[in-house]
Amino acid sequence: MKTLREYIKEAGNKKVAIGHFNISNLEALHGIYNAAKILSKEIGENMPVIIGLSEGEEGFVGKVEAEALIKEIRKNDNYPIFLNADHHYSFESVKAVLDVSYDSAIIDAVKLPLEENITLTKKCVDYAKELSKKEGRDILIEAEIGFIGKSSKLLDSIPKGVSEATMTKPEDAKYFVEQTGIDLLAPSVGNIHGMVKGGNPKLNIERIKKIREASGVPLVLHGGSGISDEDFKEAIKVGISIIHINTEIRVAYKDALEKSLEDNPSEIAPYRFLEPAVEAIEKVVEQRLRLFNNL
Ligand SMILES: [Zn+2]
To answer: How much distance in Å is there from the Cα of 244 to the middle of ligand 1?
Structure first.
């Protein structure tokens, strides 16, 4: 099987993006994987997909449990499903997931001054390289510069502190990649974490293009929930190779679960009342994967 790095490169060449979806539980994993398999069948080849867990999600699911689930699926089904540590905030937490063999990790040191962000990110990159060499793996490290807000939730307005001024500058991206040796960069290009009730801001496509050229590494678009289809398509064309979706999955899950409990007040079997929640996630993910893969 190709490595995650190879799949990302391939996505860049094909002008498609790999979907990155977060999970808090097994239902989400099933919904995401079901959708990926439906589309793989349709196109006649396996569509790669990335499962992400933030520190909070990982605390709930379990580091080792998540790794065991995803690696076993990959092995048993010979399917390109990869595991990413989404937004980890310290060297220790990145090291801990890499040690239990996650495929990639995001060191989020964006609230530190640039030089301190570089030092911490470089430490993670060096560790990932050393571990990759020792264990014959190919671990990827992603980092970010430029602020895009923090949490995957429904927002009344654009998060405080996010503005044109906090967007990533192409020259900073170039410097940051040169100094750290990261494999993937998450820029701030008009994207935000979470979904704004009145609609998310537009992406700055020209900025994405310039950052991709200046940095020389594939770009990851965080805060994909709520972005328009047109913006996604344009962003993929100019250098976005991975797109993160989380809030939309959370909303779909919660809405479906609430409805299911309301509709079946006497049902106590979780595998029955949770089934519509799995289906709701599957639907969201299928739509997103179609868009990211031009289907
Ligand atoms: Zn993110």
So the answer is: 7
